[in-house]
Design goal:
Layout (H helix, E strand, L loop, with lengths): L1 H19 L8 H11 L16 E13 L12 E13 L12 E11 L5 E10 L22 E5 L28 E2 L5 H12 L1 H8 L2 H23 L14 H4 L5
Antiparallel strand pairs: 1-2, 2-3, 3-4, 4-5, 5-6
Amino acid sequence: MAFRKARANDLRDLARFTNKQRISIEKNESFKDAIRLLEDNQHVYLDEAGKPDVSLWGYTITQLPVIITAIPRHTFPAVRQLTLRISMAFAADWRGWEKMQDPARRLNLDVLLLGTNKDESRCLTSYHLDRHQVQPVAAGSQVKVPPAEVHPLYHVQFSSGKTYKVDEAADLNLGTSGNLFLDPPRLLHYPMDLILGVDFILSNYLPIAWNALQRDGSYANLCRKYQTAFLKPYIHAIAQHWNLPRDADCWGAKKAIWPNLL
């Protein structure tokens, strides 16, 4: 399918651009698999119930490594080395591309930051961007169970209850070192695929490389394409709250996106 091949080529372009800044992502096996499956006309992605759905595209990325060359200011403890790992599960309906509808069906972007202290001890933190999946009460039921705390449809959680469960935390005694892990708050955030996710991470952790990429017109066009597909419908959906002029087919999900709106 031409649409999926175009998305595979966009991932190749992302790797080509980051390579210019000595950020290598194309050697990661899950990244290579993402491109291969997008180009495989025989491969059919699975929906939320695990059933094949020919309208879906996406990928699963596992621990894509990025070395942070300059430790951000105010980092505590004062680590001597910092790396991050990007993992992502993403799926979307290709028929909704660049339309004013929800841009994703499934989205989970995990960022794990790993630090090495001067005494060689280790530390970590994490955050993730989720698309909230509302579960029915029982199989076949249309009644939805509201979450215990507010859940914007797309939200970021920092150092949530998942952090201490990762393999890298096994020997760190996080429960007795003054840490506190909990799920709330879930902070409102726009949806991101891998291209927007990598751009977001570079802008925060490798600003010199990011600024250099921003000056590359081809890289800017790649990001602009995905901002149109993901950010535009999201922002227009929120703007409905104030009855601003909008597209006739605008995604009507302002309360799901931002539950606090009154």
